[in-house]
Design goal:
Strand order of the largest sheet: 1-4-7-10-13-16-19-22-25
Radius of gyration: 25 Å
Number of helices: 7
Oligomer: single chain
Amino acid sequence: NSCLTRNGQYGFNTYRCRGYRNGGCATATVVTDLVIDHTEISYNDTERLAITRPGCGCSGGGKFWDVRGARITDNWVHHNNSVGLWADTNDADFLFQNNVIEDNDAAGIMYEISYNARIIGNTLRRNAIGQGVRRLAASPGDHFPDGAIYISESGGDAAAVAAARAQGESWTQVNADQNTLEISDNVFEDNWNGVILWESSDRYCSSSANTSTGYCTLYHRSFVPGGSNKTACTGTLTGAALDDCRWKTQNVNVHHNRFAIDRAAVGNGCSETDNHCGRNAIFSQWGSFANYPGERVQRSILFNQANQFIANVYVGTWRFTAFDQAQSSIRASSVWTAPRPANALTSYSLWTTPAQGIGQDALSSFGGVAPQPPTSSTSTPATTTPATTTPATTTPATTTPATTTPATTTPATTTPVTTTPVTTTPVTTTPVTTTPATTTPATTVPGTTRTLGFSTKLEAEAATWSGLKQVNWGKGWTGTGWLTGWDNPGYVDWAVTVPTAGTYAIGVRYVSPFMAANLDFSVNGTTVATKVPFAKTAIAKGDWTQWSPAQTVARTVTLKVGVNHVRLVRPVGSPAGVSIDSLQVTGV
């Protein structure tokens, strides 16, 4: 319930001092278990350092540097004159959840040369417009996309995090899945661009393009984690060093988000025909260093590093950048979603024709209508009284993507301002009216407590639920939709009416195409099973029935005559990849 506002540089800075810069420091202890919650972070970088010192990496709402285990939740991050929230250099195991991030001059969230994060359930509005407009004014031929979420040489890498722990680092694990960077269940509205996945071909530990001077990746096989010992990463790289010596944009799952843009509302040259705005992207550039030459990284980030957009909803006119930032690489959704040709791994020139595809955004929908109000469970924070100063916007300046140098100045001291606490309204859902469950009459067997022949199916969206949201895209689900977007804690509670007390089989129909999860069952308030495995399901183009197909997790429970409450609970720390369609109850 603090307010960090109108500072000349950052609103806050979390930085691991290593003793060899800025005249030394008292300790080199890593920053761990950081929590930033219900805080307003606004109107920072009043000195406009992002413009007057381009490339300094020294401005914005807040900066994280070499931090392990951070929870950034339920904050209002707005009108900062640079990036809203910036994780830069060997950050690991982050959660950004239920934040409202809007009207920041550059990216709302930037995750740079870092590892393993979940960015879920946030609302991002009108970010990166200032930076995008300056780029367009300075060089109309520069098509580097400035996004609401900018992922730069960052991704899921469980081995890298394990290497840090092997060096004695200790923190409370935030995310159950340590091998994924997940961006899901967010609402994007009228940003300059959406989600940008970028990896510089030339940036690795010992290269001149690594602006995080003195830092290497977290792997222990080649160098001291985060330190200046880069001996194994110099000269010609071979074998494991080719992987260990660079940060990768890999294992990024962008799913179940809502991307909406009204180009007229964005303005500033973002017209229906403009290719600078309204994009998502996966790309790199031609490699100029011998260790990673030519198209090597361009092909890897797009085809070999498990980066995937899937099951998103698009509203308005969207285009997509793949492989390279050049104008010729910007494609319509029909090319972005079409299966890539077999020869795509050979050369960019072989698959750039409109008839060939990229193979992204399976199961996504492209509405092409005017944006609607956000429908996520994230509520807009309580309004505080802002100062009357309007942030500066359009001073032309050339910006360079993903080339940041850590700030060398001590962040300005911030004095918390008394403000109205940010209020997040808990998700309370009214059961959706749907087709009554089909029930087969029961046959009671004399002398037993079993009810043979009884069967009923109850839709998840018609139950009582919290921490989720109802969606209805894709095919193959039943009822009026399905539930996704678990928060901590989250549950689905079905009211099950049975004619006779006894033993019943219950089965939950679900898909989990991104990760496995462990969920708990309770009946009438009593936990009957914990950490029940919901296995990861295979992904295939099509609908629910083609997702391996949709799976069912079954359990046998004892129910009383009349109304029972069967609840499925996502415990704290369990991954959020599971989507729920229905509950089947059968007499046995």
